[in-house]
Amino acid sequence: MSEKKTVVSKIKNNIIVKDNDLINSSYELTLNESRLLLACISLVDSRDGVNDKDLFKVEVKDIQDLCGVVHVGGFHRELVEASERLYEREISIGSKDSTEYGKTRWISKYLVDDMNRTIELQFTKDVLPYLTSLKKRFTKYKLEDVSKFSSVYSIRIYEQLAQWKTVGHCEITVEKLREILCLKGKYPKFNDLRRYVIEVATNEISEHSNLDVSYGYRKNGRTIVAIQFRFTSKEKVVETDIKQLPNKKESVSQKGREQHSISQFKILEFCNEHKSLTQGKTEDEVKSQMRERGIKV
Question: Where are the beta strands (DSSP E) in 60-106?
Answer without folding.
Answer: 90-93, 102-105
